[in-house]
Every structure is written in C-alpha cells, then in structure tokens.
Amino acid sequence: MTITPAIKRDYLSKLAEQGKRADGRTFNEFRKIEIETGLIPKAEGSARVKIGNTQVVAGIKILIGTPYPDTPESGAMTTAAELIPMASPDFEAGPPRENAIELARVVDRGIRESKIIEVDKLCLEPGEAIWMVFIDIHIIDFDGNLFDTSSLAALAALHNAVIPIERLRPDLEKLQEKFPSVKKYLEEHPTDYPLPLQEPPISCTSVKYNNVIMIDPALDEEEIAEARLTVATDKNGDIRAMQKGLNGSFTVEEIKKIIKASIDNGVKIREELYKSVGK
Questions:
Q1: Which end of the chain is more exposed for a tag (fewer CB within 10 A), N or C?
Q2: All domains of the chain, ordered by start, with CATH?
C-alpha cells in the first residue's frame, strides 16, 4: 500500500481548512464524467466510464441458467471486479483480493437493491430455466473513487445490453421442445431485444478528513481520508444502498449533508447516463 507523505497530507488538510481542494473543485462537485457504450462487440453490453482520471470498463454477459430454489421465477445477477495491476502500483495480479471483493459487493448492492433489472421478466420456465446476467468490472486507471466510476460503468453497460436470442437460439430451440413456455417466449421475442430495466440508482461517494466532507475523492484525498460513505439514490431521491468504509466516523448532521449532496449530484449524473445511452 502506498504511504502518503506527511507533506502531502498537511498540504491537503490546509487547503481543506481554506475551503479548497487541490484540483479547484468545490467540496460537493464531481470531476468531469465521460461515458462511452458499445465498446466490446462480443459482450451483450459494455461501457467505459471516466471520472477524472479514473477509468473503468464494464462488460455484460447473459447466459441461460437454472434459477435459485428460493426464486424459481426470477432471473439472476452476479457482479465481479478485477483490479488490473497496470491501473495502480497497489493492485496485484492473482485471485480477487479484499478491495476487489468489496468493490463488487458495493456495486452489486446498489443495482440489486434498486431492482433496476426486472428479474421477473428473465424467467424462461419457472424452476427450470432463466436468463443470468453477469457484470464484469475492470479497472483500467485508478485515480480515486472506484465505487462511483464502477457503478456508473455497470449501469451504462446494462443499458447497452441485449438479451442474446440470436447467439443462443440453438439452446433456446432445445428448451422449447421440453417447455411450451419457451416456444411462446420465442414467438414474442423473435430476435435480440434490450435487457428489461427500470430507473437506475446513482452512487455517490464522500470522504471525510480534517473534519471536512467532500464528494468524489481524487486519489490523494482518498489516501488521507478518515471515513468514507457511499450512497446510492434513485430518481425520487430515495436511498437504495449505503456503504460505510474506513475507521473514522460521521455525525448525524454530516450524514444528512452527504445524502443531500448525493441526491443533488445523482440528478446530474443520471442525466449524463441517459444522454450516453440515448434516453
């Protein structure tokens, strides 16, 4: 883990006391956001998102699978994250480590708890066959705030995704021989169609250091942060997921302040997302 020099810590802390940040942003301001979709032809959906210099690529793969016993009529979703060593000297090759697992869980929770994927529409035959959605997140360049960049990349990729009728037609035709419901499904969906989605949640992360709260931390700010809070909100401003990180704490008033900043920025980021996917 990179050790933050004391001189850098002092510099950022003194700036915070003056109400300033090193890159000139206000405490409640995100860095520039760029969203590009449809980068990976062999994926069902894909997107590249940059927040500042942090860059993430997300890909969607959709396969036919067996439903879980407790949700026999619902599709399924799973999220994985890979911290590629070239993105940061702190990332190492090998099996997913704790930070990659936490990243995947935070992104997964925001998407799952908001019910953005209409899983009830992903059932082919109750108890037998469903569509399974796999979200793969790859960190290309790390300069702070992986949670929000990864979440936004996953959302953009989901909006770009289609149900792969054509690619999996042989498997579907085999299923329709056993299950009349699959035959009816193919009649209703003769070709690829967009993954059924509802309104997306927007994740916003804030950190605290030197008794100051700031949103969308750059890497230098993240490295000296005492506490972190990620809040995912929907278009109505309702909280869909929250994740507390690091050892420090927040007061009730600080949490209220973070929630408000998350809602306000969520409105702007959602507009950027819609613009990128043509909604």
A1: N
A2: 6-276 (3.30.230.70)
Contact 233, 202 (CB under 8 A): yes
Instruction: Map 189-215 to HEC letters.
Output: CCCCEECCECCCCEEEEEEEECCEEEE
Q: In the structure encoding, which two tokens stand for residue 125, read together?
A: 């035959």
pLDDT 10s digits, 147-185: 999 999 999 999 999 999 999 999 999 999 999 999 999
- Using one digit for the tens of pLDDT, what is the confidence trace for 20-74? 999 999 999 999 999 999 999 999 999 999 999 999 999 999 999 999 999 999 9
- In order of 31, 166, 181, the CA distances from 23 in angstroms are 9, 48, 57
Q: Which residues of 1-36 are buried (b: 16+ CB within 10 A; e: fewer)?
A: eeeeeeeeeeebeeebeeeebeeebebbebbebebe
State the Cα–Cα distance between residues 35 and 278, nearest whole angstrom: 12
- Is beta strand 76-83 parallel, antiparallel or unpaired with respect to 129-141? parallel
Element housing 181 (H / E):
helix 180-188
- CA geometry: angle at 23 spanning 215 and 58, to 5°? 55
pTM for the predicted model, two decimal places:
0.92
Count CB atoms within 10 A of the CB of residue 126: 13
